[in-house]
Amino acid sequence: PVPAPPKLQDEVSCSICLEYLRDPVTIDCGHNFCCVCITDYCERWEGSTTGVFFCPQCRAGFLQTTFRPNKQLANIVEGIEQLALQPDKEPKEKLCEKHGKKLRLFCEDDGEAICLVCDKSRVHRSHTVIPIEEAAQDYKMKLQEALDLLRQVTGEVAKLQAQEGKKTAQWKDKVRAQREVIVAGFAKRRQALEEEEQLLVCRLEEEEEETLQKLQKNAVFLVEQSSSLAQLMMEIEQKCQQPAADLLKVRAPLTMSHSVKLQEPEAIHTELQDSYEVPRVRETLQKYRVDVTLDPNTANAYLLLSQDRRSVRVGDKRQDVPSNPERFDTCTCILGRERFTAGRHYWEVEVGDKTCWTLGVCEERVSRQGIFTPSPATGFWTVWLRNGDEYAALTSPLTELMLRVRPRQIGILLDYEAGEVSFYNVTGSSHIYTFSDTFSEPLRPYFYPGVRAGGLNDAPLTLQPGTQQP
Question: What are phi and psi of 138, to 5 degrees?
Fold first, then answer.
């Protein structure tokens, strides 16, 4: 605000609060004071009980009842204040809401700015009061300390941000490197598979060519034999047209005809090898491996189960077991506990040197009563071994299987959504056979350890431990 001239400043200021007069009153000696200031002064003055007080400026006596409001002076003060609030000037300083005075002090007890009149009031009389500039300076120091602390914390945050940024970059580098390893690994695997595929196709083509040559050789042999026989038949027919005397003289053709025998061509096997080796097939299947155990409630009464429910063999005596509709009453069969309605599941069965077995999956609802022939039409997808070396997929009719390596362990992969049940020779790392169908019912592992005939087939079928899928 624009200050008043020094002489006028003294005339419009209260000598008690040192600020512009508010509701000015004139006392007997002629001096002017704020009505609030002089009233508070009188209340705090410790004088005689006569009601006489002494002027704060000249010490002349006066009575409180003789206060005279000075309207003219009030108008002058108001004019000076309005002049100070002209446009483009500094904003008006905040004043005390109670007394209208400048806030020159700070009460530390109440934590608020007060004016000089507030300081002399009973409310703040016993409080610790300091000049507002000192309080502001102390507050600035505290703010500076807080600012320094915030700057320190900000610096630490910046360091952490840099560390996290470094971690992020390192993590991206690791992921990128691992991605390159995975891509390179699978590229090598695909290359190996392609090479193996080409090798198998070449072998098949060689087998095809070799067999075709043998078949062609047999065809030529049969054509030559047929031609020879036709020539001999023609000679005999010509002889038959000769007169009787000449006919009876001919002995050679007759003797030759009696010595003729059918010469069969070389026996050639035309069965293709149903199994083929797949590199790292077992490692690929392991990710679908599940832990399968046997369900004793479905076991035929002649079957003997191990305590851990992983092995089953045929006994020579009927066991005393409860009769229930789940149990196979005639065929020596048993199911796994697990029921599959989705996903891919792989398990392995040790068959060892057994000469007879049937393995695969079946629908939950298959008949357990009487004698039956497993096939997809009756809810079974299985392969078997009979007579020690006769393998077949139980399709209708049977599909004979030629295995180069005798399996001691069979792997079974069920892909429910794809409708496939695949069998693998774990011993020879080769594929045996795949059923393709559509599944809509729960499927369960199926086991038939054969009949008790003594010897090798008395050995059990044993499930290999697996890892249960989450």
Answer: -60, -40
